[in-house]
Amino acid sequence: MNKPSSVISNNAYDDDKDFGRTPDLNQDAPGRRRTGKKRVCKFCADKVDIVDYKDPQGLKYFISDRGKVVPRRISGNCALHQRKVTQAIKRARNIALLPFTVTA
């Protein structure tokens, strides 16, 4: 018996299973992750005890070009000093040493 034309077998679509996919060129080897350079906390390396909010030039390193606080994974700070940097940035913004936003 003939099959109706509306029923198409699954074998017709098996060839198009990977259609549109491109190979991952950034993949080094299966099961390996890319590891970048381990960043060191700037304050721990210099053995700095306090983060001074009155030093806007020192805090500008931890603010992005849009005015946001740079996260730990980017800046390389340890958790303790990242909290201190964030608090210092907030204090410097409140006394107008640093801007809240950057206008374009």
Describe this structure in words.
With 104 residues, the chain is mostly helical. The chain has a domain at 38-94: Irregular (30s Ribosomal Protein S18), CATH 4.10.640. It contains five helices and no strands. The longest helix is centred in the last third of the chain and has 16 residues, at 79-94. The model has no long low-confidence stretch (mean pLDDT 81).
Question: How would you describe this structure in keywords?
Answer:
104 residues; mainly alpha; 30s Ribosomal Protein S18; 32% helix
Spell out the blueprint of helices and strands.
Layout: H1 11-14, H2 42-46, H3 56-59, H4 72-75, H5 79-94
Assigned CATH superfamily of the domain at 38-94:
Ribosomal protein S18
Rg of Cα set: 26 Å
The DSSP helix count reads: 5
Structural class of the secondary elements? mainly alpha
CATH topology of the domain at 38-94: 30s Ribosomal Protein S18
Which percent range describes the beta-strand content? under 5%
Q: Under the CATH scheme, which class of the domain at 38-94?
A: Few Secondary Structures
Q: Quickly give the CATH architecture of the domain at 38-94.
A: Irregular
Helix content: 25-40%
Q: Outline the low-pLDDT stretches.
A: none
User: What summary fits the major beta sheet?
Assistant: none
Order of helices and strands: HHHHH
* Mean pLDDT figure: 81
Distance between the termini: 72 Å
Based on CA inertia axes, which overall geometry fits? elongated
Strand element count: 0
